[in-house]
Specification:
Helices cover 4% and strands 56% of the residues. The chain contains four helices and 35 strands. The strands form four sheets. The chain has a 22-stranded antiparallel β-barrel. Strand 24 and strand 25 form a beta hairpin.
């Protein structure tokens, strides 16, 4: 295929130095008028000012869908694809640039999160009503937050302590009996101290097996999530600190027989301190400290996995805009991960007997620098360099370069490239392997260092202030990667290092226009070519990775925005299936399927009422539990070909929901 000329790329989700946070807080007004304006801005659009190609989903965009959690917030975006890692646990997986979400860095107000044990379920640990906005940055972003971002970053901004909203309540119920309750309360104690308290509870009250395969379509779930965030602000000192605690339980699989029973407990605490040296905040010193404890206990039929993770992140940085066009950031950082893992897996016929008690300490010590040269709004160049010392792999250098050029008022060109490094967690990164009867082969208990280079660009053409056409191309090339091969031998899943090529090329076009002040249209098309070299079959397309996706989103608002109508439709392209699925898919590919989402919102003074539907086309993957059939037609879960992880499409049919949002202003 002839690759289009790359016009493109983008970044720096300009992971701001905390010093920038000082400036942001100084300029915040958070009056009633300011907040209302924010809620009515474009629901999802490309950021014109960012150096990196960054898509912003605003608070209005988060309200277009039920958005019970972060995993359900991307249906309007073709950049991000969210699916299931398997058909029994409810674990969600995310893809950006055609690659697994483990190669994407997740940030929470510019702090790295969802690492290690929290990755399989972390997307469902972020309640949608807690979020103020989401920024999706493609490419190799700023070096400030480390080298784990190989394909990009997703940063979530939460409700602020300075918001003048003493009470916000959101309740939503769905036809599958899933119910969500959310609360947020922002309070100010004088001019210096403010806080926001966040609470979330969810659960479903009934199990479903709509396709009659003997397995629950969605696990029985319970979750409680609490958070407290604080801000101390003076012109000389800004301190953010907070803590959160979560308990999540889910039981799936068969009601009698093979079950998955998973509980997660998580505690997090953080502090961010910023001190400006000049009144204009052009020079500052900042510190970030973050600690997370994850505890997972999981059962999968006869197998058991238990994990404990202590993670610390420290970042000390100094920023100085030492001349009109020059800006320099220097920093020292460290990431410390301590894992205790227990694996008990005994498969029938002695196919595999795995008994592992592992203790692993992963240490990454970094020094970094980032230099920015800019000429007003016309041109900027950001050169970053990471020097990392990995406990088991020694020193590695990771350069990153971002360019932005605006030759005309209506044209913005971006280009970006850089190196990414991360320690793999073979079993957690590929959580669906637990929901199989296949034997694990190779090295699946170590944590190899994966190494990649990502480059690309973006060209955006503005017709006016709100209407634009955007074209992207991004490519990721691996030099070291852990390959997970489910096709080398029947009844086995092999883990081994890459020996050959592994890459993903992603092309995307976005059109945003507003035919009137009440009507907004977004059109997006994406094509992905992702391939990896397998030891037994050579260079092949990555299985279950959709080649293309198209999305159309329409929104209409009546005068004064009292009624809001949202409609989102998507077409999801075919993907190569595993060789062991060819009996079900003789052509070797999954079918193309559509999805449709709709919502109507009625706004009143102080509260909104909304009614919506998800997957209204009723698209579903027909066969999600694979393996040898017994006399009663059910899959034999004791056979080595039992597999509940070959998921490419929706698991649930059409659902409807209704909710209410109550906002009490100061």
């Amino acid at each position: 295929m002839n690759k289009p000329l790359l016009l493109i790329l983008g970044l720096c989700l300009s992971v701001p130095v905390l010093a920038q946070s000082v400036e942001d807080q100084k300029d915040r007004t958070d009056t009633l008028n300011a907040t209302v304006f924010t809620s009515r801005r474009n629901a999802g659009a490309l950021s014109k000012g960012k150096d990196l190609r960054t898509e912003v989903i605003s608070s209005a965009g988060l309200m277009k869908l039920a958005c019970c959690n972060l995993a359900e917030s991307f249906e309007n975006s073709a950049s991000v694809t969210v699916g299931y890692s398997d058909a029994v646990t409810g674990a969600r997986q995310i893809r950006l640039l055609g690659l697994s979400g483990v190669y994407l860095q997740m940030l929470e107000e510019n702090r790295p999160v969802m690492r290690g044990l929290s990755a399989p379920f972390g997307l469902s640990f972020v309640p949608g009503p807690w979020m103020e906005s989401i920024q999706i940055a493609k490419g190799s972003p700023s070096v400030i937050n480390g080298t784990e971002s190989m394909t990009g970053q997703i940063n979530t901004e939460f409700r602020k302590p300075t918001d003048e909203i003493p009470l916000f309540i959101n309740v939503v119920g769905m036809s599958d009996t899933k119910t969500d309750f959310n609360l947020a309360s922002s309070l100010q104690f004088g001019d210096k101290l403010s806080t926001v308290t966040l609470a979330h509870a969810e659960g479903n009250f009934k199990s479903h097996d709509m396709n009659m395969d003997g397995f629950l379509d969605d696990p029985m779930r319970k979750q409680v999530n609490l958070g407290s965030r604080w801000l101390w602000y003076t012109p000389e000192l800004v301190i953010h600190w907070g803590a959160s605690a979560l308990y999540d339980s889910r039981i799936g699989g068969q009601e009698v027989g093979w079950k998955s029973d998973i509980s997660n407990k998580r505690v997090n605490a953080y502090i961010k301190i910023g001190h400006p040296f000049r009144e204009d905040n052009s020079s500052s010193l900042a510190f970030i400290g973050d600690y997370t404890f994850n505890d997972m206990d999981a059962g999968f039929g006869p197998a058991m996995y238990g994990g404990r993770q202590h993670s610390g992140f420290l970042n000390l940085m100094f920023r100085d805009a030492f001349a009109e066009r020059h800006d320099l950031t220097l920093g020292l950082s460290s990431t410390l991960d301590g894992y205790s893992e227990t694996l008990r897996r005994s498969l029938p016929n002695k196919v595999e007997n795995s008994f592992h008690d592992l203790k692993t300490n992963l240490i990454d010590l970094r020094a970094y620098g980032e230099y920015t040269f800019h000429v007003e709004e016309k041109f900027s160049a950001i050169l970053g360099l990471n020097g990392d010392w990995f406990k088991d792999y020694g020193f590695r250098f990771s350069p990153r370069l971002t360019l932005k050029y605006q030759p005309l008022e209506a044209v913005i060109l971006r280009a970006n490239g850089g190196r990414g490094l991360r320690n793999a967690l073979p079993l957690i990164d590929n959580f669906g392997v637990f929901s199989t009867g296949k034997a694990f082969r190779g090295d699946y208990i170590s944590h190899p260092l994966e190494d990649s280079w990502t480059f690309g660009g973006n060209a955006t053409f503005y017709i006016n202030e709100s209407d634009y056409l955007s074209l992207d191309y991004f490519s990721t090339r691996f030099t070291d990667q852990l390959v997970v091969d489910r096709e080398r031998r029947p009844g086995e899943i092999a883990f081994y290092p890459l020996d050959g090529k592994s890459f993903s090329d992603s092309y995307q076009a976005d059109i945003h226009f507003e035919p009137s002040s009440h009507f907004t249209v977004d059109l997006t098309a994406r094509y992905t070519d992702a391939r990896t070299t397998y030891s037994s079959s050579g260079l092949r397309e990555v299985p279950l990775t959709s080649r293309f996706k198209g999305v159309v989103n329409l929104q209409y608002k009546t005068n004064l925005g009292k009624w809001v109508f949202d409609l989102t439709g998507s077409v999801n392209g075919s993907a190569r299936v595993y060789d062991f699925m060819l009996d079900l898919y003789p052509e070797g590919r999954t079918p193309v399927y559509p999805l449709l989402y709709a919502q109507v919102t009625r706004r009143f003074k102080g509260f909104d009422v909304y009614l919506g539907g998800e997957n209204l086309t009723g698209s579903r993957q027909k066969d999600v539990i694979l393996g040898t059939r017994m006399a009663d037609g059910m899959v034999d879960t004791s056979s080595s070909d039992f597999d509940a992880s070959a998921v490419w499409g929706p698991l649930m049919g059409a659902t409807v929901y209704a909710g209410i949002r109550v906002t009490i202003w100061k």
